[in-house]
Amino acid sequence: MKGLRAFAIILLIFNGISASFGGIGLIASPDGSLMEMPLEWLASTPFKNYLIPGIILLTANGILSLVISILVIIKSRSYAILIVIQGLILTGWIIIQMLFINMFHWLHALYGIIGLLMITTGIFIRLRQGND
Questions:
Q1: What pLDDT, in 10s, does the model give residues 42-78?
Q2: Do 53 and 101 contact (CB within 8 A), yes or no?
Q3: Of 32, 47, 54, 69, which residue has the fewest beta carbons closer than 10 angstroms?
Q4: In the chain, what's the furthest Cα-to-Cα distance?
């Protein structure tokens, strides 16, 4: 169980830090120039710039992931389900992003895998908790 918890914490912190930096970068530079993301990528989306996506990225994947990592560290009640929820949020974010911008980038694969690993790890932890 310690190994699974440690793995989940690593995934959550990695996602939290990288999403926070990405979100802050998009908020600081909504035209995408700081993150080298052209506005053309938003042509088929409801967004005119990266401000709203940056705010969503920062809060839903950055801050929330870091908060959940702390809850896992302190073994808060129901922390396993929170890991699953964060994995679902991340995976949903990636799928929606790919559908909106109609393209695939290697980072989509990386974060999609991280999201799936969070879901799987959270489920395994929950199943093990049920057996204790």
A1: 999 999 999 999 999 999 999 999 999 999 999 999 9
A2: no
A3: 47
A4: 52
